[in-house]
Design goal:
Elements lengths: L16 E4 L15 H14 L3 E5 L5 H13 L4 E7 L2 H11 L5 E8 L2 H5 L5 H18 L3 E6 L6 H14 L3 E6 L6 H14 L7 E6 L6 H10 L4 E4 L13 H10 L15 H12 L20 H9 L19 E3 L5 H10 L6 H17 L3 E2 H13 L6 E9 L6 E9 L2 E9 L2 H12 L5 E9 L8 E9 L2 E9 L2 H22 L15
Parallel strand pairs: 1-2, 1-8, 2-3, 3-4, 4-5, 5-6, 6-7, 7-8
Antiparallel strand pairs: 9-10, 11-12, 12-13, 14-15, 15-16
The protein binds 3-methyl-2-oxobutanoic acid and zinc ion (ZN).
Zinc ion binds next to loops.
């Protein structure tokens, strides 16, 4: 009997709950902060994709986080909406205030249970056990759906972990999460831990066990899947593996692993995998964290075959070197999508095929920019259109600063000069500046026109397609007084894309300055504080 024929029918396979925390743990990546509208957009794409639970944020962390979680809750269609809360009544109440609008709300409360984490609030084992009982009971009195996490569970003494998990279950938790907070565990240990809890904790069979893995040793996906094999039925993950330090388990990896190797991992999810690629691109764009080229599933090279032997094999029989089809994740063959004679209807249809449904006014704007691009560029590929739409989304109509005109002089003879006109609060302002190169000169010109103290932390350029006429996408990260803002833009002119990305980040900083009072800033209420 082959492994294939031993697989249980799909409708008999256990379901694994996909809990996406891109908007909470993912957003905790330094610099990955998203705007309110970006969070709403990502949440709605996650909901459409079939994510069971969306962890939408950490409501007490800032007014901005609260507003985003509340709005996502109001708009949720199918997904359960969850908010994070530390182990105190104030956090839990605030969390409930934000998630209560969701058709299916969840409160997620946590505390660090390992010796290192117990030492921070200076609680004895008994005091912490009482805190867990009281906070989970409080959460359960507000909401039927309560998740409790033992932060740093993988470095917690087994006896104590069993004790506190039992207390959380008795107090009413419906999901018990066992995080590998610092990405320390390995697959066999991850499985053994879940098996141990299921075997030893009274009432373990009445709750769902979740696995939440960080990728510090590059084992997050393997650890999550091993935990599922041992009986965990919820995987916590993020799009593109975004998250603190080396990130979290990547949603696309665990979902595709269970689909492609269903013969040895016979589990089902509700995820529509054809939506993966679009979500990956949107998250990369709004977070400013480009996906590495060789990233599993969603990397630019994941389906490219460079060597002659591979190309020959794939042409003769695609299965020689491909274990899944690009279409399975919503990746369509690279083709010359559109030309300068294509009309609005063709553009709408093409964008729909790529996963974008734009309102009429948005389509009109993209159409104008598409025509301009088609005039400048020989061939307009799918990737060009995706970059155009992403760029359109970052150019908020009422942005405080807008780029009106830019000319640069560069080459082997200095000085490199930029002549720039910005619209600042509706007023046109122009200046000339010099710099070490055209981008430096243009950024100096921006700084002369708009006074600010922000520091440029990251400046990255990527070519969207091949060829010297390719569009460049530029990501910029700025920091100012603990606030972080990323900006993106795309253009066939790298200097123009750079200035627009810089201005985009400055606009986000301006919004952030207005929104965040110093004592409610995310930075001052990290989930690790208590
Ligand atoms: O990594 C972690 O332990 C967390 C908890 C808050 C669940 O993100
Ligand atoms: Zn985490």
């Amino acid at each position: 009997m082959t492994a294939q024929s031993a697989v249980s029918p799909k409708d008999k396979q256990p379901n694994v709950i996909i809990f996406d925390t891109t908007l909470r743990d993912g957003e905790q990546s330094p610099g990955a902060t998203m705007t309110h509208d970006e969070k709403l957009e990502i949440a709605s794409l996650l909901d459409e994709m079939g994510v069971d639970v969306i962890e939408a944020g950490f409501p007490i962390a800032s007014e901005g986080d609260f507003a985003a979680v509340a709005e996502i809750s109001k708009r949720a269609k199918n997904s359960t909406i969850c908010g994070l809360a530390r182990a105190n009544f104030k956090d839990i109440d605030r969390c409930w205030e934000a998630v209560k609008y969701a058709p299916s709300p969840r409160i997620h409360t946590f505390i660090g249970t390992s010796p290192l984490h117990r030492a921070i609030p200076n609680l004895t084992m008994d005091e912490m056990a009482i805190r867990i009982h009281d906070t989970v009971t409080h959460a359960r009195n507000l909401c039927d759906n309560v998740q409790w996490s033992a932060m740093d569970a993988t470095r917690t003494e087994h006896d104590y972990l069993c004790r506190v998990v039992e207390i959380a279950i008795k107090a009413g938790a419906t999901t018990i999460n066992i995080p590998d907070t610092v990405g320390y565990t390995a697959p066999r240990e991850s499985a053994d831990l879940i098996a141990m809890l299921l075997a030893r904790v009274p009432g373990a069979d009445t709750v769902v066990f979740a696995t939440h893995c960080h990728n510090d040793l590059g084992m997050a996906t393997a650890n999550a899947l091993a935990a599922v094999d041992a009986g965990a039925r919820q995987i916590e993950c993020t799009i593109n593996g975004l998250g603190e330090r080396a990130g979290n388990t990547a949603l696309e990896e665990v979902v595709m692993a269970m689909k492609v190797r269903n013969d040895i991992m016979p589990y089902q999810t509700r995820i529509d995998t054809t939506k993966i690629m679009n979500l990956s691109r949107r998250v990369a764009s709004v977070s400013g964290f480009a996906v590495q080229f060789n990233k599993a599933i969603v990397g630019k090279n994941a389906f490219l075959h460079e060597s002659g032997i591979h190309q020959d094999g794939v042409l003769k029989n695609v299965e020689t070197f491909e274990i899944m089809r690009p279409e399975d994740i919503g990746l369509h063959q690279k083709n010359i999508a559109m030309g300068k004679h294509s009309g609005r209807a063709a553009l709408r249809a093409k964008l729909k095929e790529l996963g974008y449904e734009l309102a009429d006014n948005q389509l009109n704007d993209v159409f104008v920019r598409f025509k301009a691009l088609a005039d400048r560029k020989k061939e307009v590929y799918d990737e060009d259109l995706i970059a155009l739409v992403a760029d359109e989304a970052t150019m908020e109509e009422h942005s405080h600063i807008q780029v009106k005109r830019l000319r640069v002089i560069c080459g082997t003879e200095g000085p490199r000069e930029a002549d720039l006109t910005l619209l600042i609060g509706g007023v046109e302002k122009s200046t000339e500046a010099t710099g070490d190169g055209p981008v430096d000169a243009a950024f100096n010109a921006v700084d002369m026109l708009f006074d600010h103290q922000a520091r440029l932390e990251v400046y990255q350029v990527h070519a969207v397609t091949e060829g010297t006429d390719a569009q460049a996408t530029v990501s910029v990260r700025l920091t100012e007084d603990g606030r972080i803002a990323t900006g993106q833009s795309a253009d066939t002119d790298t200097v123009v894309a750079s200035v627009k990305a810089y201005v985009n980040a400055l606009n986000k900083l301006i919004v952030r300055r207005q929104k965040s009072a110093p004592d409610s800033d995310v930075k001052s209420v990290s989930y690790k504080d208590r």
